[in-house]
Amino acid sequence: MKRLQFIALLIFAGVATACAVTFGVHASAAADKGDAAGSGIELPSGYRDWRVVSVAHEAGNLNDLRAILGNDPAIKAYREATLPFPDGTILARLAWAYTPSEENNKVFGREQSFVAGAATNIQLMVKDSKKYAATGGWGFAQFTNGKPAGEELIKTCYSCHIPAKANDYVFTHYAP
Q: What percentage of residues in the chain have a pLDDT greater than 70?
């Protein structure tokens, strides 16, 4: 029974996250500007309208809900199982605090519902095999409160993605 409740919680969290992405909940227009660490990577116009690749709950110190979105080349590559991803692919990872829903829990009669809370950050992976040849063909960027992360943080992205080399350095699998 607990397993079913956990699965239901994950499905609910995923749907809530996807809805939050679709309607731009907790996101400000100011987050659409800025260049990450001089990389030339900016938040793409209309990225919040991209398709959902997958959703996740990251536990541990981060304890957040995430929606991974892909532009059209990303979605096409995922659907056709194309690796490596083609140049022009962009993946966006939007994250929110993992927050209990008092409103939903009142309906359920117990604590079981969690929703997206305050936005924490947005991360991007941009595929350009020539420009980013030194980092597996991917450029990385992170934005917090609309401001790009510093160069030192961005330098650490590639090393974290090395374990996913067999999947073209991408952790997220497509959830059709």
A: 78
